[in-house]
User: Fold this.
Amino acid sequence: MTEMKSVTEATAVKAPVLPDAQTVLDVKHWTDSLFSFKVSRPASLRFRSGEFVMIGLLGDNGKPLLRAYSIASPSWDEELEFYSIKVQDGPLTSKLQHIKPGDQIILRPKPVGTLVHDALLPGKRLWFFATGTGFAPFASLLREPQTYEDYDEIIITHTCREVAELEYGRQLIENIRQDEMLAELMGEGFADKIRYYPTTTREESPKMGRITELLKDGTVFADLGIEGGIQAETDRAMVCGSLAFNHDIKAILEEFGLREGANSDPKEFVIEKAFVG
Ligand SMILES: Cc1cc2nc3c(=O)[nH]c(=O)nc-3n(C[C@H](O)[C@H](O)[C@H](O)COP(=O)(O)OP(=O)(O)OC[C@H]3O[C@@H](n4cnc5c(N)ncnc54)[C@H](O)[C@@H]3O)c2cc1C
Ligand SMILES: NC(=O)c1ccc[n+]([C@@H]2O[C@H](COP(=O)([O-])OP(=O)(O)OC[C@H]3O[C@@H](n4cnc5c(N)ncnc54)[C@H](OP(=O)(O)O)[C@@H]3O)[C@@H](O)[C@H]2O)c1
Assistant:
């Protein structure tokens, strides 16, 4: 006869405890290739808005399968938010895209990264240049009080192939503008400093084209009423996109006279990869 097991014993066999486990609290699917999710925050985790951590699941071999992920929530939030691609044959995201509230993921509590305020010299206008999931670190920084304390104006550009891929960012900014708790935290009218500049490249939308081209031909400055373009004395920038995008934007910013900075050597702009390959 089969031996009876207590419920706790049976559950323990079904759900082995993961190292550095955090619980999935919420999942939202935006398109066939994009989703966002929230997990519990380890009590020990301190991070600066804009940093990334390693997260993942247990692989089929029983070993952690981890990837770098920008934390999309701000440093003061009780929960951690992530904004993710779904790569259908990707080792991690082919599985991660199926997580549900109550599931566990692995999160190594060692935040790092260059898209942090400390890596920039003081300035007046801050540009966030994102493509695709490169919006994630700016979702964090757009909810960080220091962003509004340090700058008079924050311009966030987001370039995606299709309109639906802009929706996570669009809703996030709309929610920031309406959030009374944030207004209390950061001061009434703080969100008036945000200027949102979304563009698409492969589907019709009010503003089409790669942001790199729109910067080079001056369209961005004309649209936003900025005279004299980007200036090294006043303008600071953070960049997050594919390797090709980062390479092209870096060249443009350097033409404007900005220099790339780092945590240990703050300058006028900083760059981080949104993914490799
Ligand atoms: C510093 C850093 C921060 C990152 N932050 C995020 C983040 O916040 N959100 C996120 O979704 N990914 C992020 N990534 C990418 C992430 O680490 C993984 O590559 C991604 O989760 C896919 O994992 P995978 O194992 O399924 O496929 P992988 O084997 O890692 O990737 C397979 C291929 O899919 C493509 N790809 C991977 N990630 C992306 C992406 N984000 N957007 C478009 N194409 C992609 C590339 O062509 C890549 O070669 C970050 C990467 C780095 C280096
Ligand atoms: N997102 C999708 O619908 C989709 C669908 C199938 C497969 N994939 C695969 O997923 C991977 C990533 O796709 P993704 O769309 O998330 O990221 P992506 O290829 O980096 O493109 C994101 C946005 O950035 C723009 N961009 C790319 N390189 C640029 C550069 N050098 N300068 C300025 N702008 C640049 C793209 O414009 P352009 O359109 O002009 O390149 C697009 O609007 C790719 O390997 C792709 O083949 C994506």
